[in-house]
């Protein structure tokens, strides 16, 4: 049986002092209670940036211009028993319109610095993304 590729997109929103916005998953969901970068799955026909614009608006109530996003890294997980191969694409952004609010029921958001981000309990695919983001946050602080 062939595996199905499941793309997932995430956004590291970085504020002016080098903090990043993290979102805690609702307890009732897979990886409940763990912290991740906000985002989600593209809908049929959506590219990664378009999906992120939609997901961030739905989850956080802010508007992100796709031209303001930059690629950071990706992480992948080969097929498990459900025959899904997940590829998680992390983009970064320093500018957006509006103040992020947690609109997803049961979720929480927090602005965290580099050290706090790396200490958060995260789903396995978010861990290498956070490690790749850390030097970018360091450069913002300088």
TrEMBL record:
Keywords: DNA damage, DNA repair, DNA replication, Hydrolase, Magnesium, Metal-binding, Mutator protein. This is 8-oxo-dGTP diphosphatase. It catalyses: 8-oxo-dGTP + H2O = 8-oxo-dGMP + diphosphate + H(+); 8-oxo-GTP + H2O = 8-oxo-GMP + diphosphate + H(+). The keyword Hydrolase applies. The keyword DNA damage applies. Its cofactor is Mg(2+). It comes from Novosphingobium cyanobacteriorum. Belongs to the Nudix hydrolase family. It holds the Pfam family NUDIX. InterPro entries: MutT-like (IPR047127), Nudix_hydrolase (IPR020476), NUDIX_hydrolase-like_dom_sf (IPR015797), NUDIX_hydrolase_CS (IPR020084), NUDIX_hydrolase_dom (IPR000086). Its EC number is 3.6.1.55. Residues 4-135 form the Nudix hydrolase domain.
């Amino acid at each position: 049986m062939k595996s199905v590729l499941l793309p997932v997109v995430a956004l590291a929103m970085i504020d002016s002092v080098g903090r990043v916005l993290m979102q805690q998953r609702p307890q009732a969901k897979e990886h409940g209670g763990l912290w991740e970068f906000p985002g989600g799955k593209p809908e049929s026909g959506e590219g990664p940036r378009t999906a992120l614009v939609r997901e961030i608006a739905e989850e956080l109530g802010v508007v992100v211009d796709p031209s303001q996003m930059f690629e950071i890294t990706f992480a992948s997980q080969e097929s498990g028993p459900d025959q899904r191969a997940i590829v998680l694409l992390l983009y970064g952004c320093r500018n957006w319109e509006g103040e992020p609010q947690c609109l997803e029921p049961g979720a929480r958001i927090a602005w965290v610095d580099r050290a706090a981000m790396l200490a958060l309990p995260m789903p396995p695919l978010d861990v290498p993304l956070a490690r790749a983001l850390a030097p970018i946050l360091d450069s913002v602080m300088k």
